[in-house]
């Protein structure tokens, strides 16, 4: 997969995250990269102080560095900044972070040699993934600690995963036939001064949240049929009158999933209910707003993925090297906060549908807690409680991170974005959401099965068939945790979307 710096799409980034293709920069980028590197080499031996090239970093910017010490300066920068803590980031996120760094360096404004890019490409091609602890970045001045751990592997320091084994980085490079690099002027700073870790986590959160949102449309449609709800709220005229793209898309998907269901046809004439609860009726409005929010986030993160976010920047147009603030990850922090809001809301309305289905006062004739023999059996009573617990946890985690800031580096870096915090929590929030949607899949499928001999629509019947390969109908109480995990695993794997037909669901970014 060839990456065009400045022109990488969400579809490209999703493919890197999901499919792990081998990636390399378009070789047309080499000329600009080497031109910026020559300017840095000249500045490193010049008399004028240039931040991070012949000076120290942060509050130490007034300390001049002799040309003979520039290599040591860059090496020490990486080692001293490798201060990450906590569980390592998932491999898919580390791989995406490395690709994002390639894209940024390929713009030719960072001053690195092509050899740095080549080593990063080779590591990706041969499956060497640095061990990057997930905590330690405040989202300005860049994701310093996590990116330092990534870069340390290039120096033969720290740890990496190679061929499924965690080992010292030097050993991983040697085993793969690669040689550690010695960083030249500014190269260490260019590697760690950027938003690629926060952006990778936010993109991963976006891609997972989008798939979960689409899956929640499928489970929501199942819930409507299980509850013998009305199709009228999904009529396209309603949504056209409001005009929001996400609402129109969500309504269309819900209608397409349920239309033709014999269950729905069976109660259309004699049903005395006038309106369904909001969790059924207002799905296009709620889910549509979430889809719109995620699409807006996608636009922001696509721009950020193509951006140059280190400092100083090398402007080959006039030969200047200029200090700025592109490393400040405020756009990513806002984007991650918005993803968190969408994830919390998707789980909130899904949990309300679960609660409706297990409640005999609301579920239109289904047995209490969806058990054929309620009383001695508790059915899905506590599965709903688990969904409620995870829903509340996600609501608490959805509080904005971007409004927080704390001064660092002796008050030189006195306003920070907290983008890494905002994006990292999305990993756990999406896992929680997958369980909530998985519980809805279980309860809605149980409700539809209890309507037999009436059947649901073809797409929804295919969803139930996929579920039943892994989880049997709940006739009597059983040890429930494996059923919940199996359903959540199907949700996370995209099996629900595949079973229903992906062409029925909205696309994150049309044309990409």
Automatic annotation (TrEMBL):
Residues in coiled coil: none
Coarse class of the protein's main subcellular location: cytoplasm
Pathway: Amino-acid degradation; L-histidine degradation into L-glutamate; N-formimidoyl-L-glutamate from L-histidine: step 1/3
EC primary class: lyase
EC code: 4.3.1.3
Cellular compartment(s): Cytoplasm
InterPro entries reported for this sequence: Aromatic_Lyase, Fumarase/histidase_N, HutH, L-Aspartase-like, Phe/His_NH3-lyase_AS
Modification(s) after translation: Contains an active site 4-methylidene-imidazol-5-one (MIO), which is formed autocatalytically by cyclization and dehydration of residues Ala-Ser-Gly.
Alphabetically ordered keywords of this record: Cytoplasm, Histidine metabolism, Lyase
2,3-didehydroalanine (Ser) found at: 141
Record flagged with keyword Cytoplasm: yes
Catalytic activity: L-histidine = trans-urocanate + NH4(+)
GO MF annotations in UniProt: histidine ammonia-lyase activity
Crosslink (5-imidazolinone (Ala-Gly)) position: 140-142
UniProt record similarity statement: Belongs to the PAL/histidase family.
Protein name: Histidine ammonia-lyase
